[in-house]
Amino acid sequence: MELQVQTLGKFKFVEEGEGEPLILLHGLFGALSNFKDLFDYFKSKYRVIIPMLPLFELGLDTGVGSLAKYVQKFIESREFDKVHLMGNSLGGHIGLIYTLANKDRVKTLTLTGSSGLFENGMGETYPKRGDYEFIRKKTELTFYDPNIATKELVDEIYDIVNNRLKAIKIIALAKSAIRNNLSDELREITVPTCLIWGKNDTITPPMVAEEFKQLLPNSELHWIDKCGHAPMMEVPAEFNEILSEFLSKHSAS
To answer: 6-117+181-249: which CATH number, 3.40.630.30, 3.40.50.1820, 3.40.640.10, 1.10.10.60?
Structure first.
């Protein structure tokens, strides 16, 4: 069954389940399908929510900080008191910025392949419009197993970068993420933090996870072997098991 998108004012999101809110933040090329296994696994225990981040709707304020403010307004509009935040790639970066500004509203933070320190991203030359093979190879680099980069996924990214305005937004967001380095601020985040990292991540390599572990005072680091930049897509069963155990330690029974 496909995930059903709901609308509340200016916000679009997917939501199912009951219990403590677990908010999932997608990355730069994130789609609802990225979180399908995670969503289905956790909706029996948590109120699982995926806000649709307005990556291409921001005006002159296109940047990771503006997306964090959007998440803040979304959480305020839902009147959530304490949330579990989980973010992949740019979504992790957004989660970090939100947590820095709203420490009292975050119960736990989970990062996987997060930017915020360093990322070997698609680069400024990424949107080679019309070059399908280039896009396919770049998409495959996201994963340890290139077969995870299905034609449907490659087509989706190809359509984005072939839209001139969307391509400009992607570059602006990628540059914003690089500029917005959080190394000097991470020690201020004391909420329980779970780092789940692919050992074969080439976009945010293992050294990034190790630095996050060093800088985040209340963090734990879990490695997944033979896995790239999006563990919740590539090895969902192992990812969900790690996250479930972490969340259970910090959730009401």
So the answer is: 3.40.50.1820
